[in-house]
Design a protein that fits this description.
The structure holds 2 protein chains of 2 kinds.
Chain A (H helix, E strand, L loop, with lengths): L4 E2 L4 E3 L4 E3 L7 E3 L14 E5 L2 H9 L4 E4 L4 E4 L2 E7 L7 E7 L2 E5 L21 E6 L11 H17 L3 E5 L5 H8 L7 E3 L1 H12 L8 E2 L13 E4 L15 E6 L6 H6 L4 E3 L7 H11 L3 E7 L1 H10 L3 E4 L21
Chain B lengths: L1 H11 L4 H16 L5 H11 L10 H12 L3 H11 L2 H8 L11 H9 L7 H14 L5 H9 L8 H12 L3 H8 L11 H8 L2 H10 L7 E2 L1 E2 L7 H5 L5 E6 L3 E8 L2 E6 L13 H6 L4 E9 L18 H5 L9 H6 L2 E11 L2 E2 L5 H21 L6 E3 L8 H9 L1 H4 L3 E6 L7 E2 L9 E5 L3 E12 L8 E9 L10 E7 L5 H13 L1 E5 L2 E4 L4 E6 L1 E4 L7 E4 L2 E5 L11 H5 L8
Parallel strand pairs in B: 1-11, 2-12, 7-9
Antiparallel strand pairs in B: 3-10, 4-5, 4-6, 6-7, 7-8, 10-12, 13-14, 13-17, 13-18, 14-15, 16-17, 18-21, 19-20
Helix pairs in contact in B: 1-2, 1-9, 2-10, 3-7, 3-12, 4-6, 5-6, 6-9, 10-11, 12-13
Classes of the chains: A alpha/beta, B alpha+beta.
Chain lengths: 339, 577
């Protein structure tokens, strides 16, 4: 029997009697990262990386958590468990299980490019690799992140010169802080939506250096908004919260912005294809690096990726999960990854 | 090419009309000041105004380039296409990065490179395409492939281009609209002279326009959607209006200047060659005349010399057989003779009378037509021309009753034209009761149909399942072995929010995926409206409908209660229209 099998509650390891990123309440939940589609409420005990714990508490309340460091070995009923950097958001981890001479790795969400905020992705050798494939199509090839940061800064400068605010939508957990850590703080003040600011605080506590940020209500003079970068979760799109900013240009930072139609449908001025997920070459490189012969793809463009891998000689199949609901191209305003 | 690519990017990164307008004005103004740029600017205007050159690179070569240069299997490239929904964009995302070569102007790209391609053999064409793409700076790639496909999808309308040019040239918009007529015609190759004629000084440009036999911009009607009860209050009494039938034909302008005559369609295509039937009519008209009207198929009964008789008017399906024909045989002209139903006079004795009130233009039109037909009759000749008959009634409810006859007569409804109104430009919006033309169409026919297939859309709907196929039941409820028979596709009518919801339902209820198409469990019923219906051997349902669209999402209706094919066929007209 496979070490990990899908059940109606989530990915389940019978040998160790625990679930990974379950979508319904279970006794023992190993969590790859704190995004809402991977960390759901109601389980008795959560096991996650040390840096994920505060984010989890922020989202789920005062739940019981067992923490681990990257690389630390935990054992449960003969199953060796360890967490390894996934490079997705703060505290994100791939979960590696070793049992009976077989190694399985559950990737969670990941990216290969080191963003300087989340610990950089470390490939793990394994027999079976359960991978995400949010952007599992060759049209997704990211430009180097520096280009996106420069483009965001240039857009802000143009807006500031024209007396417009710059409203940038970014997932409240992870993307927003990544943007904050890299944009030019000298262009103008940075205003954050409450949902973003709450996560900023946790990132700062974890030692991530972020430039000064303020809440919208802390800005007394509305004219100051004209030079400001305003970071908001995608759910704030078209909400009355935006009314206070006067004239503004809006943009979304998401891998889906690679395709113009996804941006135009939302009526956004700009789209920056800055993603915390692996692009097509990234997925292939990560899979290659594991040395795995069996690959299970969990969400996104699973069909094309697994078929492509099968044609390359892999034993690749689709593993059906409800992950990825945080980022679907059809959603106008994807649900927030943070409260 | 860089100028075009930069403008494309600027237009693409601005959503407001104002920002797009500013970008257009800046680009055109820069070109105006530099005659070296005119030739390229001429192309820029052409593409932005919706012009499409003849196909220089067949789609199959584009696909071959995408597959070979990306090194990906063909099915995966197809998968990419269905996600991106735009061939040009998909290829520019897939190809490896090129090394920047020399800058080539848009005009040179078109004239020296792309336009000569069709005369070369396939391999040579492919080899050139491949080499050019390799030398193309990555930032210009999208704009380049857009030139080939002609589908810019950058949210700029011809109207906006016209307004920007009017601003740059410093002329009135109506004049610029006239200058631009025919500019973006398919397969044209605009030149520096054309750009100069757009932005140049008035007298020079206008002389050229008249020589070229250009028509006036068509005045378009807006749709009256309100109830009959509201008409008196909004529009005043019917006596303020010229009321006519709305014909189901091709809107066209017939011009004669000197001995030259031309017929232009509303799409600003020159279509004279396709309708040689009209030659005798054009010969009979005086020089310096421009008529607005409708092209129809009309098999006139012998001895019918009444100017506004519509006897023998054939349904649109007959006219359809004349569309797109390059060679028109005598047999075709005999069996499907075309006639021009005139309803407006824009120019007479070489003078533009669009500013005169509708009633005066109508009076002039009537006397012109009667005179022309009488003279022809005296020669024993019958001309393929009719005067659009007036429809009269005392009040709006009485007109509404007349309108109801339209379907049986094969017409679309009624037209209302303010008697005091001038002939305007484009579609005038607003509650204006003195200038506007209203089309008062029949309510569409409709059936409740079941969604069975969905496909992802293009352009701004790319990635979303927005194109649907609908089916009806082969037999009534309770009949054994009844099945759902597809009968129409529809793309429009749902709000963005409804479309997102439907997208989610489609993903959830998918039964099978065939490339870009998904079959879904039949769970959703929608009211589908359409304008016309005709028997068809090509459709499994035995029926073809015109302009199908979604009127309403019938969430209240179970699939079992959707309509049957029989109900659809009952809408077929019984006799001739």
């Amino acid at each position: 029997m496979d070490l990990i099998v899908p059940t109606d509650r989530g990915l389940y390891c019978a040998a160790g009697d625990f679930h990974i990123d379950p979508w319904r309440p279970v006794a023992r939940a190993l969590i790859t990262h704190a995004h809402g589609d991977h960390a759901r409420p109601g389980s008795d005990l959560y096991v996650c990386h040390r840096l994920t714990a505060p984010l989890l508490k922020k989202r789920l309340g005062d739940v019981a958590i067992e923490m681990a460091d990257y690389g630390e070995r935990l054992t449960r009923d003969g199953v060796e468990i360890s967490f390894h950097p996934a490079g997705h958001v703060l505290g994100s981890a791939q979960i590696r299980l070793a049992h009976g001479g077989e190694i399985w790795v559950v990737s969670g969400d990941y990216k290969l490019e080191d963003d300087g905020v989340a610990a950089a992705f470390e490939p793990q050798s394994c027999h079976v690799f359960i991978t995400e494939s949010t952007f599992g199509l060759p049209i997704y090839r990211w430009r180097p992140q520096e280009e996106h940061y420069a483009a965001i800064d240039a857009w802000r400068c143009d807006n500031a010169a024209a007396g417009r605010a710059s409203v940038l939508y970014a997932y409240a957990l992870g993307k927003a802080q990544r943007v904050l850590a890299h944009v030019d703080a000298s262009i103008g003040p940075i205003v954050c939506h409450g949902a973003v600011e709450a996560i900023n605080a946790l990132y700062r506590e974890a030692g991530v250096a972020l430039p000064p940020t303020r809440l919208a209500q802390e800005i007394a003079n509305k004219r100051d908004f004209a030079r400001a970068l305003i970071l908001a979760p995608p759910s704030a799109m078209a909400s009355p919260w935006l009314n206070r900013f006067g004239d503004y240009s809006d943009a979304l930072a998401s891998g889906f912005m690679q395709v113009r139609g996804n941006r135009r449908r939302r009526g956004l001025d700009r789209g920056f294809a800055l993603s915390d997920h692996a692009d097509w070459p990234g997925l292939l490189a990560a899979i290659e690096a594991t040395g795995a012969e069996r690959v299970l793809a969990t969400h996104g463009a699973v069909g094309p990726l697994t078929r492509y891998l099968r044609e390359k000689g892999f034993d690749a199949r689709i593993l059906s999960t409800p992950y990825g609901e945080e980022e679907t191209p059809a959603d106008e305003a994807a649900p927030e990854a943070a409260p | 090419m860089k100028a075009f690519s930069d403008l494309y990017k600027r237009l693409d990164s601005a959503t407001s009309t104002r920002a797009k307008q500013a970008a257009l004005i800046e680009a055109f103004a820069a070109a105006k000041d530099d005659p070296m740029q005119w030739a390229s600017a001429a192309w820029m205007v052409y593409f932005l105004a919706g012009g499409k050159p003849r196909q220089t690179v067949p789609t199959r070569l584009m696909w071959r380039l995408a597959v070979e240069r990306s090194g990906l299997p063909e099915w995966l490239v197809e998968e990419c296409y269905s996600n991106v929904g735009d061939l040009a964009e998909m290829i520019s995302l897939l190809l490896p990065e090129g090394k920047a070569g020399e800058e080539v102007s848009l005009d040179r790209w078109m004239r020296e490179r792309l336009l000569p391609l069709p005369s070369l053999d396939e391999e040579e064409r492919y080899a050139r395409l491949k080499r050019w793409v390799e030398e193309l700076p990555a930032g210009q790639r999208l704009a380049f492939f857009k030139l080939i496909t002609g589908e810019l999808r950058v949210g700029v309308s011809r109207l906006q281009v016209m307004k920007a040019l009017a601003e740059v040239a410093g002329v009135e918009e109506s004049r610029m609209a006239q200058r631009m007529i025919g500019y973006a015609q398919a397969r044209r190759a605009p030149s520096a002279d054309d750009f100069q004629a757009l932005i140049g000084d008035v007298a020079h440009a206008e002389a050229i326009a008249l020589d070229a036999g250009r028509p006036y911009p068509f005045y378009l009607a807006q749709s009256w959607q309100g109830p009959v009860e509201a008409m008196e209050e909004t529009l005043g009494p019917p006596s303020n209006w010229t009321v006519e039938w709305k014909f189901d034909g091709i809107r066209a302008q017939l011009l004669k200047r000197g001995q030259v005559w031309r017929v232009w369609s509303r799409g600003e295509e020159l279509i004279s060659d396709a309708y040689p039937d009209l030659e005798p009519l054009a010969r009979a008209l005086p020089s310096g005349a421009a008529l607005d009207g409708e092209l129809v198929v009309l098999v006139s009964p012998a001895g019918d010399f009444v100017a506004d008789s519509l006897d023998g008017l054939a349904p649109f399906a007959s006219l359809q057989q004349r569309l797109g024909r390059k060679v028109v045989s005598d047999k075709t002209m005999r069996e499907l003779p075309v006639a021009f139903i005139a309803y407006d006079l824009l120019e007479i004795d070489g003078r533009d009378i669009r500013g005169e009130p509708q009633r005066e233009r109508r009076a002039r039109l009537e006397s012109l037509i009667e005179r022309t037909l009488d003279e022809a009759m005296a020669r024993g000749e019958r001309l393929p021309m009719r005067l659009s008959p007036l429809v009269a009634a005392d009040d709006w409810p009485a007109l509404a009753v007349v309108r109801e006859q339209a379907r049986a007569l094969g017409r679309e409804g009624l037209m209302l034209k303010a008697r005091e109104g001038a002939y305007g430009v484009g579609r005038r919006k607003g509650g204006d009761r003195t200038e506007v033309w209203w089309k008062w169409k029949l309510d569409p026919m409709s059936v409740d149909a079941v969604l069975i297939y969905a496909q992802r859309g293009h352009g701004r709907r790319s990635g979303v399942y927005s194109d649907y196929t609908f089916a009806l039941w082969s037999a009534g409820e309770g009949a054994p072995d009844r099945e759902l028979v597809p009968f129409a596709k529809a793309y429009s009518g749902l709000s963005d929010a409804e479309m997102r919801e439907m997208d989610a339902i489609i993903r959830r209820t998918t039964v099978e995926t065939f490339g870009p198409v998904r079959s879904v469990e039949p769970t959703q019923v929608l009211e589908l409206g359409f304008e016309g219906i005709a028997p068809s051997k090509r459709h499994r349902s035995g029926v073809a409908v015109r302009f199908p669209r979604m009127l309403r999402w019938r969430r209240d209706k179970p699939v079992a209660e959707a309509d049957t094919l029989e109900a659809l066929r009952a809408l077929l007209p019984t006799g001739r229209g």
